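## retry 2 of 3
previous attempt timed out at serialization; input unchanged, resubmitting
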Amino acid sequence: MNLRSFGPRACTEEEVAGALKDLDGAPHRIRARDWPGDLTAMDQAGLYSWWVDGPGAHDLSAGLEIDLPAGRIYAGEAGATRWPSGTPSTATLRSRIESQHVGGNVYGSTFRLTLASILRPALGLVAAGRKKLADGGEERLSDWIRDHLIVAVHPYPNRDALEDLEHRVLGHLDPPLNLRGMRITPARTRLSVLRGLLAPTPGGIPASRASVPKLRKEVTVSQPGSVHPRVRLHEEMSAILRERGNPWMSRRELADFVNTRGRYHKHDGSAVTDFQIHGRARQYPNLFDRQGTRIRLREGAP
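## retry succeeded, writing output
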């Protein structure tokens, strides 16, 4: 009998407490440039937490345009069974940290992609395709990681319960640079925008047949002989939601995406506000669902 057919295992309260101690309460931390240092038993599954020093926190704060203090910034797992399929993983703490985070590339590491998105101006990183940096970019990013980051680990061999342990630990730690499943904060909103700039959806989402004629009716001439479609705000909001898989997004987050992408421009040149996003969503109830300050596309919207 395949036990994995019954779904993921749950961890215990004692296991959560042990992980929190190793990752936050009393962590044994190793600088990235010294990895694995005196750590042993790294060829197994487990959790890890990344910490940044003072100069590194200054770099990240500049990129985010939001103050990020030195300390723990990110946490994750290595080797959890993939649910709901029950597919086993062969990843280990060594392979995740050494081969994907300190080394590796932004395509194979969400953490490296996050750092690259924030540090793009500071390190002179240039996108050379989706989730790919131009020559020399990965090396500069790895050097920055070795110079400024520190890691703590918590070995945990029960791969079937590791996903549950990660979920519960992240709920306690709330690392500022973790995105998936975390509450919305200004830093995460800004990070979402920056990641979208470095790793946009390939080709974007084609406009629906119903919206194409509208896009062609409004044009603005920026230079002699060049004609560009003028994107309307509700069309840009729709495109952003579609490209991100149509999650609930806050009005502030949508405004940040619109302003950063730069496809929609107000006549007076000022930035789009969350109040304007709110007003446009109310104006098009056939397109958008609203829930408090959050917005998403209505099911079946054109």
